[in-house]
Design a protein that fits this description.
alpha+beta; 3-oxoacyl-[acyl-carrier-protein] synthase activity; ACP_syn_III_C; Peroxisomal Thiolase, Chain A, domain 1; Ketoacyl-ACP synthase III; 9-stranded mixed β-sheet; single chain; 2 domains; 315 residues; two-stranded antiparallel sheet
């Protein structure tokens, strides 16, 4: 299985830390120290999870002339901030790109949904039910966020990304998916209450941030080590690490646990905040052209709920 192309869409409106200083007294310096976030993007009026998903889909298809739209035979969408729970982002993308009568699936496994979506593609490919897939991850966090919340209100940003995956290599620059691991950890710690978004309550709540921090650090480091060992590789064989973009302190903790220098991590949280399951895909889109032949990339994620995973790529 190969990742042929990746592209991202980010709303134009930038929200700096000063916004939260004015709103609830949190200083720029405090937010930087605790999270590494300097600014984040906010969807404009009229934008939502589905419109951002469509933008990402159109961008990734435009960047992939070797994979015409009419050859896409599977769409998998992922989000935990849906605009519509029935007419999902995957349905909206299908209508926008005009490919009828193909499997269309939408999933949510919190911030780890990117890898679950890719694993669904892997299953369709293995069963011979598809050969070229469009994966779209999109989060409209600010639609659900309570900015007055001094615990987590300053964390969230909006954005989306699209990936084209194929069963066969389409171009020499394609990233080969060497391995993929996902798992749920719903029975661990405070998984049931640490991060919640109950639609009727209309807000993202994170009352147990420390529990999230501890388990995110542990699981992302552990599953990255696991996927390397499963492929007879060591950390020294890894060129880039793309972690879930939740908190810069989590990223640094994972790097320390793995013994990787900070310059080997791909991070966008300082500019974009926590963009949920889209964060790692946006980071991959930003890094894509810089990955050299023979280099290996690990994508590792952790989501509220809890869920986690790792993917190993090679160019």
């Amino acid at each position: 299985m190969y990742i042929h192309q990746v592209a991202a869409y980010l709303p134009a409106h930038v929200i700096t830390n000063e916004h939260f200083t004015r709103l609830n007294g949190l200083s720029h310096e405090w937010i930087i120290e605790r999270t590494g976030i300097r600014e984040r993007r906010k969807a404009a009026t009229g934008e939502n999870t589905n419109t951002m998903a469509i933008e990402a889909a159109q961008r990734v298809l435009a960047a992939a002339p070797l994979c015409p739209t009419d050859t896409i035979d599977l769409i998998v969408g992922a989000t935990y901030t849906p605009h519509d729970t029935i007419y999902t982002l995957a349905h909206a993308v299908q209508r926008a790109i005009g490919v009828a009568d193909i499997p269309v699936v939408s999933i949510s496994s919190a911030c780890s949904s990117l890898l679950n979506a890719i694993e669904i593609v892997e299953g369709y490919f293995a069963m011979g039910k598809a050969s070229r897939a469009l994966v779209i991850v999109s989060e409209h966090n600010t639609a659900y966020n309570n900015e007055q919340d001094t615990v987590a209100g300053h964390l969230w940003g909006d954005g989306s990304a699209g990936l084209i995956l194929s069963k066969e290599r389409l171009a020499p620059t394609d990233l080969r998916v060497l391995d993929l691991i996902t798992a749920g950890a719903g029975g661990i710690g405070k998984a049931d209450t640490a991060v919640t978004l109950t639609p009727v309550a209309k807000g993202i709540v994170m009352p147990h941030g420390k529990d999230v921090f501890i388990h995110a650090c542990q699981y992302m480091a552990r599953v990255t080590q696991q996927i390397l060992e499963r492929n007879n590789l060591t950390v020294a064989d890894l060129n880039w690490l793309i972690p879930h973009q939740a908190n810069l302190r989590i990223t640094r903790n994972v790097l320390q646990a793995l013994g990787l220098p900070e310059e080997r991590a791909v991070s966008n949280i300082d500019r974009l905040g926590n963009t949920g399951c889209a964060g790692a895909a946006i980071a991959l889109a930003e890094k894509l052209d810089q990955i050299q032949p023979g280099e290996r990339v690990a994508v590792t994620v952790f989501g509220g709920g809890y869920s986690y995973g790792a993917m190993l790529l090679e160019r």
